[in-house]
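Write out this protein's structure.
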Amino acid sequence: MSRTRLLGAAMLLALASTAHASSFVVTTDTVVRGVAASTNATSDASSSLRDDKIVRAARDDAASFVASQGAIRGVKLESAFAHIRQQAPTLQASDAQLAQAILAI
């Protein structure tokens, strides 16, 4: 094999490994940002509603909701969801995130 071909193959290999590493970094950064946003929403909800009686009363329903992956939705939990969303209308959290926040209190 000529030196030119060897040099070309080495350059292609170097470029391919660089592209693979950078795509891994982008994927990892995206996943980490998503988890951080979810954690922030959960912690914001739990810290501001720690002493709320409606939310505290929904703990058992929240545990059932989380354990059943959303299949069991108790009356107290639905009331707590409505109350939380009324108190914090800009909070962008799913029902699952809110249930986890209620359990974290």
